[in-house]
Write a structure and sequence with these properties.
Blueprint: E1 2-6, H1 11-22, E2 26-31, E3 46-48, H2 54-64, E4 68-71, H3 78-83, H4 85-105, E5 110-116, H5 139-158, E6 161-167, E7 169-171, H6 189-194, E8 204-207, E9 219-220, E10 222-224, H7 225-238, E11 244-249, E12 255-256, H8 257-268, E13 274-277, E14 286-287, H9 292-298, H10 307-320
Parallel strand pairs: 1-2, 1-4, 2-3, 4-5, 5-6, 6-11, 7-10, 8-13, 9-14
Antiparallel strand pairs: 9-12
Helix pairs in contact: 1-7, 2-4, 4-5, 8-10
Bound molecules: nicotinamide-adenine-dinucleotide and galactose-uridine-5'-diphosphate (GDU).
Nicotinamide-adenine-dinucleotide binds next to helix 1, helix 4, strand 5 and strand 7.
Amino acid sequence: MKILITGGAGYVGSACLRHVAAQGHEVMAYDNLVMGHRSAVDGHPLVVGDIADTELLTRTLKDFGADAVMHFAAATYVGESVENPEYHYRNNITGTLSLLNAMRAADIGRMLFSSTCATYGMTESETMTEATPQAPFSPYARTKLAVEWMIRDFAHAYGMGFTLLRYFNASGGDADGRHGEDHRPENHLIPLVLEVPLGKRDHIKVFGTDYPTPDGTCIRDYVHTRDLASAHLLAIEATGEGTAEVFNIGTGNGQSVMEIIEACEKVTGREIPREVVARRPGDPPRLVADPVKLKTQLGWEPLYTNIEDTIATAWAWHQSHPNGYPD
Ligand SMILES: NC(=O)c1ccc[n+]([C@@H]2O[C@H](COP(=O)([O-])OP(=O)(O)OC[C@H]3O[C@@H](n4cnc5c(N)ncnc54)[C@H](O)[C@@H]3O)[C@@H](O)[C@H]2O)c1
Ligand SMILES: O=c1ccn([C@@H]2O[C@H](COP(=O)(O)OP(=O)(O)O[C@H]3O[C@H](CO)[C@H](O)[C@H](O)[C@H]3O)[C@@H](O)[C@H]2O)c(=O)[nH]1
């Protein structure tokens, strides 16, 4: 299959690109490099462009002869979306509309969409299934939910086929230590915690200890990028016309902020000082997947089920690339 990957130079998009290319598919990244890195694309073709540029996208899809699209390009920071919702609504909703129009112009009917567990609201149960009601806490998450609706309408009206993948928290680095997370500025918990043993910061800030969780800090389900990538491969092969199937991608296990810091201490063998500060606006207390649908319908099995193994791959990447990618 020929797969165009928007956001293919970013953290999750590039991990998926490298994985599907290794499985024999032909890939092309399309990224404006606001967050992504050329080196993450690992020598595969990259078109530097914005998803808002419908004409360039259409031409790229036609020239490449794409069979399908994996759509990762988006603004992704929850805190930023509270402060600057305009960027999130424009980039994520208008940008996706532009991509859908380019796909229709190029007659391409198959797409995977990076949605998020952040679209769920609160639930009484320990884990979230695809049927858990959606009531997003942040502008970022609301943009993702709006796109889910847009996609369903496009599937119904135009017969296009989609799979909506609600990721929980992407984490880890490639097993060979050559690729990993590099956001500038970094915003995610695990890479920020690891900056302490790397000597780049002297402590980690804990955003709130007054949540309704056992230790008062937020709980997330940290899923390895390798396992996100294997789910994408299964999903693109299973995406049929006129449908918009939804799957959670998560391990089914949750870790609190404090547990992540402790796991990082174990993996690195260093003490990691912490400072408790106020809650970060937009953060829900607990997001943990029920991944049964992905396992039973698509046969997905995660390789990484132990958080310390996942953190060890991130640590290997950060140790060998303390300043991230060279570009
Ligand atoms: N990282 C997570 O834990 C997580 C969890 C749930 C969902 N997601 C979703 O997965 C996707 C990838 O997330 P990520 O963590 O890899 O983020 P990322 O920032 O590393 O990757 C996004 C990529 O998209 C590119 N991009 C952004 N706007 C663009 C535009 N207008 N045109 C072209 N390229 C553009 C960026 O340069 C970047 O390379 C996003 O859609 C995000 O919302 C991520
Ligand atoms: O310095 C920090 C950074 C984060 N946190 C906390 O750690 C948890 C995880 O935060 P991240 O920023 O690593 O991840 P998020 O859960 O906020 O968001 C990520 O996962 C979401 C799904 O949960 C999204 O889709 C989003 O794109 C992606 O950034 C949150 O409770 C946050 O408050 C801290 O305490 N200190």
